[in-house]
Amino acid sequence: MKLYGSFGWKKLNNVLSSARLGHCHFASLSVQSTKSEKKKSDGSSKKIKYSDTVILPKTTFPLKISPENRKDHELSLAEKYKFDQLYTSQRQWRRDQPEYILHDGPPYANGEAHIGHAVNKILKDITNRYKLLRGYRINYRPGWDCHGLPIELKSTIKLDAGLNPDPSHIRSSARAVANYSISKQMESFKRWAVMGEWENPYKSFDKDYVKTQLQLFYSLYEKGLLYRDLKPIYWSPSSHTALAEAELEYVGNHESTAVHLSLDLNLNLDDFASKVGFVLSEEFTNSKDKKVKVVIWTTTAWSLPANTAIAYRGDEKYSVVFNPRCHLDNRVYYVVASKLVSQFELALNHGLSTVTEFDAQNFEKLSYQHPWFPDRIHIFFQSVHVTMDKGTGLVHIAPAHGPDDFLLALKHNLPIECYVNDEGNFDSRLESLNGLPALTGGNTGVMLKLKEKILKKEKYIHSYPYDWRTKKPVLIKTSMQWFMNTQKLKEMAAEALSNISIYPKNVQNAMLNQVMSRPYWCISRQRVWGVPIPVIYDKDSGEPIINKEIIDKLCELVEEKGGIDDWWNLPVSALTQKDEADTLYVKGKDIFDIWFDSGISWHLLDGKIADLYLEGIDQFTGWFQSSLLLSLAVRGCAPYKSLFVHGFVVDGENKKNVKVFRKCCESK
User: Fold this and answer.
1) What own/partner pairs with CB < 8 Å and gap ≥ 24 does 378-382 have?
2) Which of 103, 504, 564, 639 is most open to solvent, judged by the fewest CB atoms within 10 Å of its CB?
3) Tell me, what's the pLDDT at 15?
């Protein structure tokens, strides 16, 4: 450091020398002002700042960039230092080095980049640059997920034509939304200096990608891994489509109306005693003609018209109880699980006395009157899904509206009735409820008709599934859908996951648990913007027809036209090349689940296994899982060697808020 002014090097040396000799007391030193005077050429003097006495590196690099200039500054840096050339350069000069493959999980092409994108892309870039410095040749091809409901909803808003305009118009508008979003997001990613193959990104609506998807569908069908069936699935009335588990958000403070409902056993107390095998004591002799009712508890009163059975727990005891304060003439006897009598007392807000306790197996001898259709008589079935933590220990079974209910119906050959249409409204078969939304007005309508049977009605706050895009409640209803048989893949998946490194360590078992508990995967959606499931149906029987010739012809059209819009535009005869086909068959209207779209992206690696998939923790139920299942199904191995998951960026209320996040990344 060089000092100027009256306190120079010579004087400093003299002072230090004196100090060493003991001739100087520093307490008596007085340093002259840092603003010394220096004479100008005209004889006048000016003040010299202390900063002028210190030699610092000279740079044009600004201390900070104003928000309005930030975007231009980033672009100028990227242009000056050729950030976009680093990826191509390292691919050339590291040609003989080992390759490191980070396969990009495609973000949705449905808007501009936000801070969540920044977290993900920068984490990937840090990983790639570290591996580059370690001597690897980086393979990172960015991609985009171009189909799906979010993009379609934006396109319909732009069309200002509701949810059901012409398919060709929706697809054209959705493609424009996706292309615009890709260009804007790519502009941001490149400005952030993310190293990647930006001149050749992959997009799930590219013609080669779509052709591969169609052929993989046929391959999986031939292997017996895909099938069409009637099953209860999550249905979004607000989106008019089926949803997979990964497309749900569980809202913890959802409010339902819970009811305790009594159903007639068509037996008096005396007959009930004979059936169950106990003797009435003298105090109940005068009550032997009184009715006996079973009590169920449900938070889905709207599903009661679809009831076909009541389930009980086979290894539990049940009690017949009554209100001792009730006059004999008005006395009613109720059947509930013995362990839940105290909860039932709380619900009724009074004490109960017990007539008898009996084994659950006695329900096999009993039947009850349907709550909505009094002329129908149904019976009881044992089921392990009945629990003793809430309710009455007796569960109303509606096979069309619950997976456990549905399995019980299949086991005992029960009828499956669904009175709710694809709009989420009751259909005309229930005249008093026709057109009412099942979850709202229909629910109220059911409770109003059954008010004489309702013993208790209360608000119940609990976790409930919502559509992840519309943020509105969903329901479960049976529907004819296409499914992937995950049951056949579970053993392979468990073995594959045991050899995959998952970071951080505390989430290693999350994906295994989710895969093993998944009964099937619904891969069909009832929308327009996506890849069509290439199936035609017999007009009379409704039977699906899948053959290689139709799929090959469709692939030819995709190659020729650059897309798959012809599925909606051409007649069936153009696909089958048979003139009579138009009178015999009809094209399917389902498209693939977007997780199927993105889940086959591993095919872009030409048979290689990715070293790493790096995404948010929600992808355990999404892309990580769909990629694993489809890779195992098609080629018998996992698509990745390692998984790394990161958390979410949240706002001040601990919520994901895309509008706020996008503002964080906007350059004004």
Assistant:
1) 378/307, 378/308, 378/309, 378/310, 379/309, 380/309, 380/310, 380/311, 380/312, 381/309, 381/310, 381/311, 381/312, 381/408, 381/412, 382/311, 382/312, 382/313, 382/314
2) 504
3) 38
